[in-house]
């Protein structure tokens, strides 16, 4: 069971993945959701949700847990066959900090060695003309039990589905085009990236915007500001921002919240 804070499309996707016998996933810019580490998933969700006026720190963790629950599909008995095509850009883009990406790459390599039903191919940056540049899609097949479906993630929700035969055929051709230049042997670039050979000079992503915290005083006496980071949450006094800020890890912030009074939405 997944939190009601999540769009229903997320829960539908998880149910469909559980029933699938084959999953084909193509992702050009990010590590696919079924392969993400907890820290990578959390950092990505923080960055994506930082633009939402409705997001609170408590809104992040149900989404992280949902993604971790989905990954039981990889390790369960009699899992589906899985083919992933990942753009080389995803292996180079740090999600908040370099160590988060490094841990993610090590998990990819571990998954390749431990799970023979998981095939990972890397589409090199040199491929400039395939139709999935900048996008992603997931094709789910159910054998003789149900027709194939295609899921495409969206920025604001769980994604959209294609169920018409001509749409599925088009998406299948797009994935095949992405596969043509990607081979399992190119996984060597994952090893290279994990060793730090592709480590960018500037590993830190831009930090999210500051917003007024719900733990500020009332009567327009708001003085506490917070912002999401890949590591956790930063807090500062808005009346003296030049004095710096306090940084909380996710665990520290979660422990801290019950000790203060939640008076209103932090985006309010």
Question: What does this entry look like structurally?
Answer:
This protein is of the alpha+beta class and 268 residues long. 35% of the residues lie in helices and 18% in strands. It has nine helices and ten strands. It has helices at 8-19, 38-49, 57-70, 72-75, 88-92, 98-114, 165-180, 188-194, 250-256; strands at residues 22-27, 81-87, 118-123, 136-141, 149-152, 160-162, 211-212, 224-228, 232-237, 246-249. Strands 3-2-1-4-5-6 form a six-stranded mixed sheet, sandwiched between helices. The chain has a four-stranded antiparallel sheet with strand order 7-8-9-10. The two termini are 30 Å apart.
Strand order of the largest sheet: 3-2-1-4-5-6
Instruction: Give the termini distance in whole angstroms.
Output: 30 Å
Q: Which topology of the largest domain does CATH recognise?
A: Endonuclease, Chain A
Please write the string of helix (H) and strand (E) elements.
HEHHHEHHEEEEHHEEEEH
Which secondary-structure class do the elements indicate? alpha+beta
Radius of gyration: 20 Å
Strand percentage: 15-25%
How many helical stretches? 9
Described by strand count, sense and barrel closure, the largest sheet is:
6 strands, mixed
Q: Give the name of the CATH architecture of the largest domain.
A: 2-Layer Sandwich
Percentage of residues assigned to helices: 25-40%
CATH class of the largest domain: Alpha Beta
Pfam families: DUF397, DUF5753
Domain DUF5753: 10-184
Domain DUF397: 210-260
């Amino acid at each position: 069971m997944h939190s009601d804070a999540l769009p229903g499309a997320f829960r539908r996707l998880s149910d469909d993945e559980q029933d699938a016998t084959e999953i084909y996933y193509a992702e050009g810019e990010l590590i696919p959701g079924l392969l993400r580490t907890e820290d990578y998933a959390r950092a990505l969700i923080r960055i994506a949700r930082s633009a939402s006026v409705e997001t609170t720190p408590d809104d992040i963790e149900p989404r992280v847990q949902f993604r971790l629950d989905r990954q039981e599909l990889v390790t369960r008995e009699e899992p589906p066959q899985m083919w992933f095509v990942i753009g080389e850009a995803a292996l180079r883009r740090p999600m908040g900090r370099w160590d988060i990406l490094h841990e993610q790459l090590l998990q990819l390599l571990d998954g390749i060695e431990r799970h023979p039903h998981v095939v990972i191919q890397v589409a090199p940056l040199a491929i400039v003309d395939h139709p999935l540049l900048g996008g992603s899609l997931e094709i789910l097949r159910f054998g003789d039990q149900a027709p194939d479906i295609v899921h495409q993630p969206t920025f604001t929700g769980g994604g959209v589905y294609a169920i018409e035969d001509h749409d599925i055929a088009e998406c299948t051709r797009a994935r095949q085009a992405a596969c043509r230049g990607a081979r399992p042997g190119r996984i060597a670039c994952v090893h290279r990236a994990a060793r730090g050979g592709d480590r960018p000079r500037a590993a830190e992503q831009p930090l999210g915007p500051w917003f007024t915290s719900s733990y500020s005083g009332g009567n327009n006496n708001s003085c506490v500001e917070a912002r999401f980071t890949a590591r956790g949450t930063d807090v500062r006094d808005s009346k003296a921002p030049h004095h710096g800020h306090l940084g909380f890890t996710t665990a520290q912030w979660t422990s801290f919240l019950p000790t203060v009074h939640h008076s209103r939405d932090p985006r309010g």
